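Technical note accompanying the year-one report. For the benefit of new consortium partners, we illustrate the data format agreed upon in the data management plan: each record pairs a sequence with a structure-token string. No post-processing was applied to the example shown here.
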Amino acid sequence: MAYNILLTGVGGQGTVLASKLLAAASMAKGLPVMSAETIGMAQKGGSVFSHLRIGEGAKNPMIRRGTADLLLAFEPAEAVRMLPYLKKDGVLVVNASPIMPVTAALSATNYTGREMMDYLKEHIKQIHVVDGEAAVRAIGNPKALNVIMLGAAFAAGALPFLTEEDVIAAIRAHVKPKYCALNERALRYAREAFS
């Protein structure tokens, strides 16, 4: 059976790159991979999500509702939006730091993400919460959030078919050389910080 991962966030958080790193690391191990992305209004802070199916048995790249093994959410409201895809005993790794949607900013709504996090904690048994703001401060660069989230997924035991070294090899192959050290540091930091 394929292992189903749904990654979700908003434009600019590196959701698509995180998906590509997982896909590349899996393919390098000889695992079949199918993926599909929806980026919509990503450049304007809109929703971004990526379906990733790894292993035998996938007939198409889209994950059916209620079948995702892992929901890797870079933003709390996006986690709630994609929650119907997570299977009953699936794992949620979520960044608790919200990004105010354009619609909320225009209507002067005070979006803190707190209600979303309360909802997720109430409804999901296997939830792993990442303080994204603190993590990027520790790393020193907000662009590393996507790889921090991958490290948190490792810490949660939610990527059983990959090793940290597999993802580091994918980083070295698919990330600009000047950002490799930052991303490797982010991956290791998160694995240790969220274990």
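Partners are asked to follow this layout when depositing records. DSSP finds eight helices and six strands in the chain.
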